Amino acid sequence: MLIENELKKQKYKILLVEDAESILLAIKDYLKPYFIVDAVENINLAFNFLTENADYDLLISDINLAEESASKLVKYCKHKYPNIKIALITSYDINDYIQFIKDEEIDQVITKHSQLSLRDIFVMAYKSITKDIFGIEKYFHDIKVYFPTELKSTIIPKNKEVFSITIKNHEDRVSWIDRICKIIKDEKNIPESLSKLVLDEITLNAMIRAPKHKDGTYKYQHIIEDQDKLIPKEDVILEPEDYFILQYGFYDDWIIIACQDPHGALTKKEILYRLHRHAHLNPETRLPHGLSDSHGRGIFLLREHMTHLIFNIQNNKKTEVLCFYNPVQVIPYKNISIYEI
Question: What is each CA distance from 119 to 59, 69, 93, 115, in whole angstroms?
Fold first, then answer.
């Protein structure tokens, strides 16, 4: 069932704070068929509404309002109303605010640009409030995602189709990365190097970094603690409980690559830490702080290259990484989308 139909049965409340009237009205009009939306243009009004209506489910606020930054509003909500989910919107480079985002553990930051997607804002609001976070279908509601996941040969997806494969070992991983890269190159004329960067990062996380023993030690790699280095084993054969799913497909101009693992080991804190390490330069070397890290740079590169990168995490149960790339859309700054339940 469409998530829009489900929302009509509920009465979730959103406080929207945005000083650009056209954007304020556009977001409010798009959301109001499904949510109760109070929309205000400044922080003082926002504080008044919060005082009078403490039962908001979600705060959506511009980071830079005309009279001051929204940081005071965010800190107030975190302290006074910790159950309110918070999403920020901005027309500036999110990397400039990564320290604040990390410190306040902000889940969602959406960039404003000429191709601002109201649908993305709607999906963000739905997922943040309901905790129903998994699935490509939320972003492309008429897409067909094919299971079961035992493909014996390469299949080229038609438009609005996604295929799924179960990855059981290193050989599966390498073989399917090569096949998917070739399909994307042949069908969409995308360099195999870009597809490989994406596929390598999300599958290595699912295969090598996520699986752990009950005592918390890694199954398929070992860590050198004092150097923050992880050394993976070679030619890994996964135990059945560690099998993961790799997905690929197309939707109009969109290229879709996704990965699901059954562990939920990735965390919002780790993602924001790694983004911060690579987005900020060391003042002495003028190079990223995380340049020498053995892992984490892949997350930063994914976000820089993909049109939209989404992390869906159910702690200790499931991680889903959605990578959406649209070669037609040129978006200057990229969202931060992390859903953790």
Answer: 17, 26, 21, 11
55 by Cβ neighbours in 10 Å (0-12 / 13-18 / 19+) ranks as exposed
State how many domains the chain has: 2
Dump pLDDT digits (tens) for 133-171.
999 999 998 999 998 676 667 789 999 999 999 999 999
What predicted TM-score, i.e. pTM, was given to this entire model? Answer: 0.90
143 and 98 within one domain:
no
**Domain match, 288 and 254 both:** yes
Residue ending a domain, choose from 130, 151, 180: 130
**pLDDT: which is higher, 323 or 231:** 323
- Final residue of a structural domain among 113, 130, 147: 130
Q: Is 148 in the same domain as 35?
A: no
Claim to verify: residue 90 and residue 143 sit in the same structural domain: no
Cβ contacts of 298 within 8 Å, gap of 6 or more: 197, 200, 201, 204, 205
Supply the Cα-derived Rg of the chain in whole angstroms. Answer: 21
CATH code for the domain in which residue 318 is found? 3.30.565.10
3-state secondary structure of 194: helix
Output the six-digit token pair for 329: 């859309």
**Secondary structure (H, E, C), 167-178:** ECEHHHHHHHHH
E strand intervals along the chain: 13-17, 36-40, 58-62, 85-90, 108-111, 144-146, 161-167, 221-224, 229-232, 244-251, 254-261, 308-314, 318-325, 336-340
Domain span holding position 233: 136-340
What mean pLDDT comes out for the span 269-284?
A: 79
Nearest to 268 by CA among 339, 319, 321: 339
